[in-house]
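For the sake of transparency, this paper describes our internal protein records without simplification. Because each token names a local backbone shape, the row as a whole describes the fold. One such record is reproduced below, unchanged from the form in which we store it:
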Amino acid sequence: MTVTWWLFALLALNGAWATDLFVLGNGLTELAAPGGLLMGLGRLTGLYGALALVLQFVLIARLPWLESRLGMDRLTAWHRWSGFWVVWLVVAHVVFITLGYSAQDGTSVVPELDTLVFHTEDVGKATIAISLLIALGLTSARAMRRRIRYETWHFVHLFGYGAIVLAFFHQVTTGQDFTGSPVGQAYWWTLYGAALTAVALSRVGVPVLRNLRHQLRVVSVVRESRDVVTVWIGGRHLERLPARAGQFFLWRFLTRDRWWEAHPYSLSAMPDGKYLRITVKALGDGSAWLQRIPPGTRVLAEGPYGAFTSDKRTGRHVLLIAGGVGVTPIRALLEEFAWARDDIVVIYRANRRQDAVLANELHQLARWCGARLHVVLGPPTAVGRYGPVMGPHHIAGMVPDVRRRDVFVCGPPGMTNAVKGTLVRLGVPEKQLHSERFAFAS
């Protein structure tokens, strides 16, 4: 049974238990009363929305057992979609409960809503929680996220923890499914307690212990091009850090004005037990500032994260495809596969030669291990000797045996999706396609 099925089975089991709470709380017998159906729907949507909130907690806790098997991309995508379900279920809970009480009391909706929000115990807390959850949902919409900085998006999402705490206490103190049920309260405390503990250990406990052990600092900053730098990071006992080529960390550089910002950057070299290396392009304020970071700056790193590693391969024949600055994990993987003496082909896609950062290092590694390297330059509409660039004929011309290879793709989301679609059309089995999306929480 796969990890995905275990997650769905666990969610279904908790959904059944939540439904049992509703039934044991006389939910079925109250359906015949005035407004009973609406009240029942309100209670059920509230319970299911709270379960979806716990699922979000688990998905974003970055538990090593889950993250190493499913990858941060998949967990983040599921977290995002479960977040929208949380918002819709919570909104439905408010609507049904308000309409149900209105039918019971024989009042109109607006006065009933006023009574619930301002004159009912702990409903004010729930109102704040709902407002925060709606704000999180709005900032997670693709149209909104394109207009806000990563730092702003990350800061807003920290308020989600407050929303969870407020919603929890609203349920256990006023929820009909809990106030008269010691078993229900014990179950709910255990469920939320386990989720909070998982987040605290994975997101705080383990990173703090690792950073105390390794004492990371910037060793040097090397300019690769006008807007790209490579940062070398040293520390103590780095051979004990379980980092792999293809993975990434959330990095905090502890300067006076930037210590609170966390940025996800992939390793651009295979960890050697002495240094960690990242290569960063100036795409925003945070990454542009890294070009001027002084050596000696203390660094906090959370991770490593990502399932984009050599463990995913099914054989010894490998195709690595990089787009733009997505070359960083590909370069690290090439180094690891080179040491293993695998049969390697590399395709590096960039619009212009100056955009092909680390191309010289790829050439050197390819010569050392006998890999075939293709640097493909030109605009997205370019047409080459085999037809449209990165189209089926183009890739098949460069890699005639592509069907038997494990393919690792990293680049901007549009490029990654297009290349994967092309590879599927070429007959590459799904189990041999491995990708890393070069975007935050998308």
Notes: The first strand starts at residue 217 and ends at 225. Residues 113 and 119 are 10 Å apart (CA to CA). The chain has three domains: 3-204, 215-305, 310-437.
